[in-house]
Amino acid sequence: MPQPRLFLHIGLLKTGTSYLQTVMWQNVEELHRQGLDMVPGSKRETFHLMLKARDRYKPEADPPEVATALERLPGQIAAATGDRVLITEESLAPATPEQIEDLLAACSGREVHVIVTLRDLGRQIPSAWQQTLQAGMSLTYRAYLRRLRRTEGEIANRYWSSKDVAAILDRWVQYVPAERIHLVLVPPPGAPHEELLHRFCRVIEVDPEPLDREVQRSNESVGRVQAEVLRRVNAALDPELQARELYGDVGKRYFAVRVLGKQKGERIRVPRELQEWTREVSQRYVDAIVAGGYQVEGDLDDLIPRDEAFTDEGKVSHKQVAESAVLALARMLTDDMERLRTRRKRAKARRGSPTGMLRRAFGSGRRLG
Collapsing DSSP states into helix, strand and coil, what is residue 116? Predict the structure, then answer.
């Protein structure tokens, strides 16, 4: 009888992970019916596991259950009844050798398979810069690109920790054999919408057809003009307000996603002068994958950036920023006024209810009857 398997989806960042995770988490019961269990019990718990496994736990800011997340993992895996288990968290990829060892030790008892989702650098680089803005940072796009070029090849550098495919695979293959490392490639633009999901499901041996595949995007991209608005707002914020537990709800999920993301601006591309360099780095990654003998879902040509990933466009103008900022302010005022109108309607309805009339009568000292 084959050993039960554990699929460890480690990222990379900005490779369709949010989409895949949303589909997985909203289909827990159907996945269980097909023999696959999600571990730990929620996306939030999985994030807590990553914080502990990556030594990112901050007792002053994070909930106390993060401290024992890794200790609880073996029991959670043992409680799974399916022949397959899935752990998915895109920030696990940059784990150090010591962190990988500790995480895999907690997964003992199952045959571990690592899943790495990959996207061409022509699309991943702009998305990764935008992600820094949605984390409260304010580095300009040009400065970000200069740092990328300057630090290329530095394995531990934060700009490459979730992009350097060759280094990430070299690190994980020391602990999981290449035949159990599955690379799922993000399809190129124009591919069928659900192709990435189908590729992922083939690896975890799940039939995607019965799954609820309707996904409301919670990781909305912002356009190049809107990204500059966000960057300038971040630069004007008090650094204390950029803490993860504060900025995430307001700065990212509200302002970036719901306000700026709704403007549907022109997407961010890589400057044309970096086209040759971007493709050279991408080809090195493809060569490393071929040499490593990893399991690949998709066409390796999908990792070579296409011409449309690059642009000759110059800087965003002050006029463009001003127009986008005005639209953002109008949206924020609209949201606030709609919330106020809703509160007033509810308060009026409560005052007109029998309970509301009784409260007013007794509160004012009047007697009924």
Answer: strand
pLDDT exceeds cutoff 90 at 215? no
Domain presence at residue 152:
yes
Tell me: do 98 and 238 sit in the same domain. no
Is residue 162 scored above 70 in pLDDT?
Answer: yes
Residue 366 lies in a domain: no
CB 46 within 8 A of CB 124: no
- Report residue 128's pLDDT band, with 50, 70 and 90 as the boundaries: very high
The CB-based long-range contact list for 205-211 (8 Å cut-off, 24+ gap) reads 205/35, 205/36, 205/84, 206/31, 206/34, 206/36, 207/34, 210/30, 210/34, 211/23, 211/27, 211/30, 211/31
Lowest average pLDDT, out of 126-130, 215-219, 262-266, goes to 215-219
φ, ψ for residue 94, nearest 5 deg: -80, 10
pLDDT for 123 beyond 50? yes
In a domain, 357, yes or no: yes
Of 317, 324, 287, 316, residue with least CA distance to 304: 287
In which element (H, E) is residue 279 found?
Answer: helix 275-292
Q: How many domains does the chain have?
A: 2
| Single-letter code of the amino acid located at 235 | A
**Whole-number Å distance between alpha carbons of 147 and 164:** 14
| Domain identity same for 57 and 159 | yes
CATH number of the domain encompassing residue 188:
3.40.50.300
Instruction: List, in sequence order, every beta strand (DSSP E) within 64-110.
Output: 84-88
Q: Are residues 193 and 63 in the same domain?
A: yes
**In terms of residue numbers, what domain contains 178?**
5-217+270-312
Would you say residue 256 lies in a domain?
yes
